[in-house]
Structure formats: C-alpha cells, structure tokens
Amino acid sequence: MNLAVAIGGLAFLILIHEAGHFFVALAVGMRPRRFYVFFPPALVKRTWRGIEYGLGSIPLGGYVKIPGMHKPAAGDLDAHLGRAREEAPWLDERAAPVQRALAEDRLPDAQAGLPELRHALDRADLSEPARRTADRGLTDVEDGLSPEAYWRAPAWKRIAVIVAGPGVNLVFAVAVLAVVFMLGIPEGATRVVEEVSSGRPAAAAGLEPGDRVVAVGDTRTPTFRSISDEIQATEGRPVTLTVERDGREVELGPVRPELEEGAPGVEDDRYIVGFRPEPAFYRTYGFFESFELSGRATWEVTKAIGASLGRIVTGSGRDEVASVVGITQASSQSLEAGFRYYLQVLALISLSLALLNLLPLLPLDGGHIAFSIVERIRGRAIPREAYERVSAIGIAVVLFLFVIGLSNDIGRIRDG
Questions:
Q1: What gap in Å lies between CA 167 and CA 159, rounded to an integer?
Q2: What pTM was computed for the model?
Q3: Please, are residues 174 and 291 in contact by the beta-carbon 8 Å criterion?
Q4: Average per-residue pLDDT in the chain?
Q5: What is the DSSP letter of 192?
Q6: Exposed (0-12), middle (13-18) or buried (19+): which is 9, by Cβ within 10 Å?
Q7: Tens of pLDDT along 88-100?
Q8: Sign of the dihedral defined by the CA atoms of residues 98, 100, 103, 106, in that order
Q9: What region, left, alpha or beta, does residue 334 occupy, with left being phi > 0 and alpha being psi -120 to 50 degrees?
Q10: Of 163, 243, 273, 318, which has the fewest Cβ atoms less than 10 A away?
Q11: Which residues contact 339 (CB under 8 A, 6 or more apart)?
Q12: Is there a cis peptide before residue 147, judged by omega within 30 degrees of 0?
C-alpha cells in the first residue's frame, strides 16, 4: 500500500507540472491539442472545444500537446509522408508545392496547399501504418502553421508557458512544507526509539522501536543529547547500548558507529548508529509564519540541491544521484515513518523536479526557455535541426544521470 501511495504521489507531481503548462498555454492563446491524465494511448477520450481530453493507459503523470513547438520545415514532410509516397507515388506532385513553400519560407503558401494535400491523402490507397504516420505528420505541420503555434508566439508567452510547469512544482513544495509547519514540527527528542534504519549498526545489533536507550557503554544517558554525545565520543569504536525493553534492561552490541557526511553548509560529519528518537513534542505554527518558514526552508534546500549538482559535475557527488526507483523507495519509507515525513519528502521531490527541469538542457523546460531567449535576441526562429542536435546532447546527459542513479539505487537495495 505504501508503495502504491508513493508511486501515486510521484505521478501527481508530474501531472500538476503538465497542468501548469496546459492552463498557461490556454491563457496566452496557445490552444493545446491534447491533455491527458497518464500517457497515451487513450483508454477513454473526449474532444471538448477543440481539445482532446483523455485518460491514458500508461500510469505516469500527464501529457500535454502544445501546437507547433517548432517552425515547420520541408524535411518534416519527407520524414512523415515518406512511406505514404512510396505506396502512392502520385502524392509527390501534391506534396511538392508545400515542401517548396516551406523551404523558401513562404508559410502562407504552404498553409494554403495543405487542404489539397490532406484531400489527396484521404483518397490514397495506403496501408494503415502509412496512413497513420502521414496523418500525424500532416497534423503536426498544420499545427505548426496555425496562428496558435508555440514558435510563433512572443518570447514572453513561450517562457511563461514553459516556466509554468516548474513553477507549479515550486509553489506546491512551498505550500506542502507550510502545511507541515502548521501540523507541527518535532521539537526536542526523547530517549525512546521511534524508527530503526535498516542496514545500519543499530538494526544489526537488534535495536527495536519502543526501546528506551539508558546507557552507551558504561555511561548512563539521562537525555537524548547525552546519547548523541557518547556516540560521537566513540569516534567509530565499538560500544554497547543498554535499553529498557518490556520492563527490563537489555544490553545490545557491540555496535560500531558509522561516520555520516553532513549536509552541505548545515552540519559537520558525525557518527551515527542508525535510529530516530521519538520527539518530545510537536510545535505548531500559524498560517503566515508557516509560509515564511516554508520559504526559508525551500531556499536552503535549493542551495543544497545546487551544491549537489555542482558536485555531480566534478564527479564527487555521483553517489548522491537517485533514479525513480530510489525516489519511490524513499517516499514509501517516509510513509512508514508518518504522514508528516511523507509530506516533507513529497515537497522535496516536487522542488527537485522543478529545479532539474530548469536546467538549460533540451528537452528539459530550461532548454526551451534558453532557446526562446536566444530566438528573441536573434529575431528569428532557430531551425528545427538545431533543436534536434541540442536535444540529442540533453537526452544523453539525462540518460547518463538516470543510469548513475539506477546503479546507485540497485547498490542501496542490494546492501539493504
């Protein structure tokens, strides 16, 4: 059940990201052609006011089709109508005028020739795959030549549509963290164990939730702070833990504390045995104070994510990368710890999704923003071929990060 909720949370974040693109595109006059919950092919679909709404069969987030992301080129007809023209060579004379007009940048003439080409395709005796590919390709060219096309819009409109996706994820992260502050943040810590981390020394020694740690080695520990101080004092040397369990004291271990690297700019490295204590109490905050604290926390996490991206570039932070597998696993584990912790993790994932999408790489949102700015400066559209070449580099980088993250996740799962 926790795994299903974790997957559903990730899908929801992707869905609201796409919804951000969709609604802003509508607002600025770029009428999207499709909006799907989940990815096509469609299980159910309905067209309303010229937009196809549907429920996809691939349960991952959502899908939006904005018309004319790129300026149509003559080569587009070769790519999409190639098989149809092989099966019906007479289509060449219908496609040639449109291709010439596109090659010579006579877009009104190209648009005027599309109805005749569409009529010819409808009359042609074509196989189903050839007809489907030709119809899709011709629809893309028609969308690219329409007044609603993305590439035709002023730069500020294009940037607004693209920024809307990451923007929704950012706003969602801030709002969810504010809810967490309103629900209450754990303050202080007791000596009672709330959660034991799997694969850590405490778990190997047999520490269990509900145990009360009363001594580390020969030193009695009346507070959680004294437990932490004694563990730091070991400097990694084995030590026993004495706990109260079912009304009697039980000695566990020896336990060898592990050195954990501190978060960038937050704290130094420290020794841990791998358990979380129960909080002494939960401190709640008012509405406005919660949003103020949420904004501060979001900024701190943003700086930490930026620092981690820098470490990935230098090669020192590659073990910090996680794939969808690791993200889902972390979400599922946070649910076991409690709903507050799950909300915090969901907010962090939403913020990460926003920031990673703003990287200036195609096909990420940041790449489209960067190209819109360049096109505004140069005063004309960048050729589709340039988009495709840059996109190939971006896709390679994203796949590289995915492989690293998946490898890290597999290692973590294998190591317990």
A1: 11
A2: 0.78
A3: yes
A4: 86
A5: B
A6: buried
A7: 999 988 899 999 9
A8: negative
A9: alpha
A10: 318
A11: none
A12: no
